[in-house]
Amino acid sequence: MFTVTYEQLNVWLTAFLWPFVRILALLATAPALGDKSLPNRVKLGLAGFITLIVAPTIGALPQVTVFSAQGVWIIVNQFLIGAALGFTMQIVFGAVQAAGDIIGLSMGLGFATFFDPHAAGSTDVMSRYMYMLAILTFLALDGHLQVISALVQTFQAVPVGANVLGANGWRTLVGFGSTVISAALLLSLPIVTALLVTNLALGILNRAAPQIGVFQVGLPVTVITGLLLIQLMLPNMMPFFARIFEAGIQELGRVAVGFR
Hints:
Blueprint: H1 6-29, H2 40-54, H3 69-107, E1 113-116, E2 121-124, H4 125-140, H5 143-157, H6 167-176, H7 178-208, H8 214-258
Antiparallel strand pairs: 1-2
């Protein structure tokens, strides 16, 4: 007769549950993998599949009961570590969306918004357009696989049971938030500068020939100019996305190490 003791059940449960929580937290918060359009069953199944592969390679785990106070605290730690890693990549995509907001405002499309289920609110149309370009580039470069690989490596850098309250990890994550401003400005600056020149030209034209009615033609000219500039920037935009994605994936390791 096959029997299982409570100690054996606890060992099996801890070997699966603690890594599963960290992996699921990242999949729920990371870009593309955590998108709301992806069913929760798919996220749970993917997290379980990755856990089955990763769990035997983690090594020794804390010898505590899963549902004890210390065991629950470890679960909370793993959730916060995974969520922090996923949020690190969200910062990268936040920079792309911020660039889209700046470009849309310069083009006069600040009023062009629609409901975005991912953001659970209204989103600028240019911001959503830039986000979709970034997502397609991220998937084409196997960024989702690189994120999962970086997550698996964090189990060696930050073993299960590490104290998530380490200040260095959170400080590194907050410092990386400056990327939102710098990368967004770098990405949007060429288009914003060109549109500024266009608006100055329209202003001069309005002073020289008021009968043209520059206010009627100004918005179409600005929108068309912005779209043409985005089209011209696309070949250089993809390498830029690749660089910030690489920086985000490298930051995953630094944030994880800061939790030790």
